Amino acid sequence: MYYLSKSDLLQLGVKWEEMIEKIRETVYTLKDGDFAQPIKPYLRYRDLTNRIIAMPAFVGGKVSFSGIKWIASFPDNIKKNIPRANSVTILNEADTGIPACIINTSHVSAVRTAAVTGLVVKEYLQRNQQKKLSVGIIGFGPIGQQHLDMVSTLLGDRLDYVNIYDLNPLDNALVPAHLKEKVNIVKTWEEAFENADILMTCTVSKKPYINKVPKKGSLQLNISLRDYVPEFINYTNHIVVDDWEEVCRENTDIEVMHKTQGLTKEGTLSLVDIICEERLRHTGTEEVVMFNPMGMAVFDIATAVYFYEKAKADGVGTVLAD
């Protein structure tokens, strides 16, 4: 059985185009029904703002692995100078159930999150033919940093500038050297939001605050799920979710919109709808799209398998004794 540490994963690096294609393959596996994914349970105790989530899944198709991610999210960890999220993933051979690999997956989780977002960004780039696009990022922890790397890679020369806002003072060293001329550290979330063609929330916000009209034709990527006031539904033309049953709970913006604004599953689009069925392909240039990903275990397993197979091919990692 393999073990992959964070240093192993960093050594392997990330090729965003490859990783996003792995997510695309998995979306088509969802369309084909060749998967299993129970609703993930939340373990809470003592301080109920903390949670540990079990995320089991089987992914068929080209992935053909089962597994589980066990991820803890303790928001106050940042006050102790330790990561908010920590996780491990176990991969099992699909046909035998034999454990094949254990991965320290905090880094993998961040990559998975950005890769799923990246798939939606690629779909947006096919529809939006502007020569230059602006990006706003609210929250610049590990998730925000991965999203900057991903979106700058996908946009390439089309990237005009990025405005980044975080509640905490930002270390300029977190911005890659090749992007410093295009990145602005701004003082308010409004500055990151107002002129963004692509807006990403990567916060640990407990209550919504985004209450302004978005830029026409923009892509609103609600990655942290608790940043938009429920009335924001009136500013969007299309609301996309990864999985309605997963995302419409735990006080997400989607659940609040469901309870207070009458949003229903039928009023949303899924990743299968927009990727496999191309339901957004003819969207008007001024229409606003909002993506709300709760995080699906199938994508975690697919991402973990990507790193596992790459590690074996490159001779990276540790083989554990039985």
From TrEMBL:
Signal peptide: none
GO process terms (BP): siderophore biosynthetic process
Domain of life: Bacteria
A single GO cellular-component term on record: cytoplasm
Pfam families: OCD_Mu_crystall
GO terms assigned for molecular function: oxidoreductase activity, acting on the CH-NH2 group of donors, NAD or NADP as acceptor
InterPro entries documented for this protein: NAD(P)-bd_dom_sf (IPR036291), ODC_Mu_crystall (IPR003462), ODC_N (IPR023401), SbnB (IPR023866)
NCBIfam families: dehyd_SbnB_fam (TIGR03944)
UniProt protein name: Ornithine cyclodeaminase
Source organism of this protein record: Chitinophaga eiseniae
